[in-house]
Amino acid sequence: MTLIGQSVRRLEDRPLLTGEGRYAGDINLPGQLHMRLVRSPVAHGRILDVDILEAVDLEGVVAVWTGADVSAIPPIDFRQEGLTDLYPYRQPILAQDVVRYVGEPVAVVFANDPYTAEDAAEAVFVDVDDLPLTLDATAAPGSFDGTHSTEAAVVRTTYGSVDESFTAADKIVSVEVTVGRHTGVPMETRGALATVEPSGSLVMYGAAKVPHYNRKAIAAMLGIDTDKVILREGHVGGGFGVRGELYPEDVLVCLAALRLRRSVKWIEDRKEHLVATNHSRDQHHRISAAVDPDGFITAIRDEFWVDQGAYIRTHAATVPNLTMAMLPGPYLFPSYETTGHIRLTNKTPAGTYRAPGRYEATFARERLLDAVAHELGESPIETRRRNFIPKDQMPFSRPIRALGTVIEYDSGDYAGILDRLLEHVDHDALAAELAHRRRGGEAVGLGIAFFVEKSGLGPYEGARIQVDTEGAVRVVTGAASVGQGVETTIAQICGDGLGIPHDRIAVVHGQTDAIDHGLGAFASRVTVMTGTATYLATQELEKKAKAVATHVLEVAPEDLRLVEGRVEVAGAPDRALTLGEIAARLEPLSASGMGLEPELAAESWFTTDHMTYPYGVHAAVVSVDKETGGVVIERFVVAYDVGRAVNPMLVEGQIVGGAAQGLGGALLEEFVYSQDGQPLATSFMDYLLPTATEMVAIDVLLLEDAPSPLNPLGVKGAGEGGTTAFGAAIAAAVDDALQKPRAIFRLPITPERLRQIIHGDYPEEGAAPCK
Amino acid sequence: MKPPRFEYRAPSDVEEVVGILTEVGDEGKVLAGGQSLVPSMNFRLARPGLLVDINGVKALDYIQRSGDRILIGTLTRHSCLENAAAVPGPLGRLLATAAHHVGHMPIRVRGTFGGSVAHADPAAEWCMVSVLLDAEIIAVGSRGRRTIPAEDFFRTVFTTALEPYELLSEVILPVLPDSARFGFVEFSRRAGDFAIVASSVVIDVGSNGIINPRVALAGVGGTPVRARSAEAVLAGSAPSAELFRAAADAAAGDVEPMGDIHGSSEYRRHLVRVLTRRALERAASEA
Predict the structure, then answer these.
(1) Is the pTM of this model over 0.90?
(2) Would you call B105 an interface residue with chain A, using a CB distance cutoff of 8 Å?
(3) Which residues have C-beta within 8 Å of that of residue B168, sequence separation ≥ 6?
(4) In angstroms, what separates the C-alpha of B148 from chain A's closest C-alpha?
(5) Does A4 map to a domain?
(6) Is A702 on the interface with B (CB under 8 A)?
(7) Residue span of the structural domain in which A220 resides
(8) pLDDT score of A402
């Protein structure tokens, strides 16, 4: 039976479509309290007083806490250990003395129902003495807290001989580009329900993404034993990097459950979500290329600024580090230097969001490549071809580290996928058609942008497969699901290995009391890591099943085959035992008689110190309304090589969903702040997510030309490549539509800004040639 | 996003509605389709002490013709007007086009014509159409019924001439002659959003040029407005590309828009020029 590569239907869908989904909001416990945060109304200031008297007196209010009540709880730590230089910038669970962004938790109310909780939160009066604001991450750094700078860190990466290359360059081409502030906005907002069970264990429902790490962090912050904390993941309505990180609210519900000895529930509302959950992107790059007389780029020099917002959250410097590591993308770039400034401002703290660092770095790099092409007077496609890492140089290593690994592209044929894409869109005919339409007065254009993604971050993940005497199979993993189809994918890999239908397999994930170790769902890692561990476990299980069959059927193991869930004798398929029968033979007494451990079960762990690197190309055709500045995407193609697609339908779903988010960042979504630090996009009327009407049908060209040599399945992660190059492709297409190179240097491309660019009254900050 | 405490009553006739509104004064708020009111309450921007739900007052749900006038009951859902045949002639087509621009389908199925007019969002389609066509807005209160011309009705953002004890019961629109042509153009970031700017025009081309030109704009200030200078440019002249450009320029000169994060004042004025020209071109080419 071959299940890998089949677009089987999702196991997850039945409960979701029949209304049996168990999202955080669906879980209730008797006597639960409802938590509501009081959030800072100002962007920066010293707290003079938090008056809770009126709130405490409201009927149904059980407790109201301010910063003083939780001052003994340490701030929220980074997942990566040892970054002591960044410790001063960690966020406390309630503001202590100073507020640093609008929306920062200042006090918290616990009441018998959510309405009363909101009434009480509204009745808390926060008196703040305003402090000077920092809203521009590129301005000169100031003081964060009197002791530390708003420039929390400067990160650097360099290799080769950058200075010499620039000195020797035939041409130097520079661009200055900005990617706006936007983020993942899951359909399900955050939520948590904490309770203390009769055993004394603290249980939190509503976990996502990284339950095992969060269990440890919550235990450490609250000063209790890790084994007394259990995190349970239910259905999760979207993660995108933001959901499931450890936030102040998660710690507060747990602390309240312990202190108040009541179950405590918190469901984030959408208005909170847009100011409280991690923002992302918001980078500004000044990037230059040194080009030799043959048009080959010999060196890249980049400097960038990250608007980190008011605190450094769980990701610490992950986004700037990924930006640096992944900026070179598919090109050789023999020398490279980048400097990143991590700047604190008075905005919502920032973290990772689908294709973190890559959406930004790809925009900067691909805009630069387009500018180089313009400078050389050639097609942007030619410039890219000349600079690609050739297929025969794979695996290709750069002396850069990210996430504790060396950047080494495992496999790839970059020129090959570009050819496949150009053929797919019939490039020459398409370009001719667009030129024809432009001659007829339309502003239409084609843009192409390349990207390399990273996926399958280690260092480990495990899977335990158990078969019961009925032949039912259970896979227990430390993986987490944020809705991406983990159960289906893992069941397919397991079913493929054991020769049984995937819908006979139950997959357990996100339960910290089911397995001791698990790193979770991020970095497009689950299929690579948990999938491989599952594959390895099926091989172990097969060995054990054959060992039993050897005893029972009196046949040597090498003469046995595992076929369709049965171990049969080669050449005599009637002589066979089903996996259920084998499990029955492994009851403790008879297992002991065979010298085997009881139970038909196997456990495997997959460890790796290298990531896998999927890659692809985005191609956009847009038309611009030159009078209004409106942009319509007429066509969008994503060519993406994921090594091997376990379930092509799910991979395509990942690509299309990711593309919608790429579109949002390219044209619509932006967290705008007023001059006094007030967020102006705090509802879906102002924070513009793409809807079905704005979304273009994504033409997916899913390729498996470059399987990963780093795992036996050959898989790479598929979660982010729909997003990565979207902004860069749209920008190139708009340039082409306007026949105005270097026109677009900032995302999102709003109609008003575009109209200003078209009419030439936009400050030309992006178009300046290097001095 | 939970509303503060409120009381709720659901009367079954207009007299009872007016009685309750008179009794409670400022505390009362009429609930029709709730598509703006309920989110406002959840954001705690609106805090009515008492919701007077008129969804049970079936007598307020009608579209009737009376001579050369069309009477639209306040409880008429937007979606009823999406059917161009619901109202005869060019007016039916204009209303259908405008209706299709109102929010998204679920909003159009639940939201009401009168509710939108009473809410007085300066970018709302029905407010602009009311001003465009010199609608008469009927308010019913304990002291009886009065007629308010649309241009007097809208005072500023979310503010109307309606008294707290009055119910907006009906909007009266003039039937347009079969020779009338209209153009209705919006620009928004996404389909279904309130327009950044909308422009609507009605013209009737006779042997002596354009007669009865009407130009109205939304998204350009606290209320929808008529672009009187544009109308003056159009009146009596033969339609032409130059004329439409001149009228569009005049319309842009008629407004002093407020800016927000979706468009500055300057950009909105620019859009007035572009969209008014396009609305006129569309009207001229309407079959």
Answers:
(1) yes
(2) no
(3) B30, B74, B114, B117, B118, B137, B138, B139, B162
(4) 31
(5) no
(6) no
(7) 17-132+189-236+243-276
(8) 84
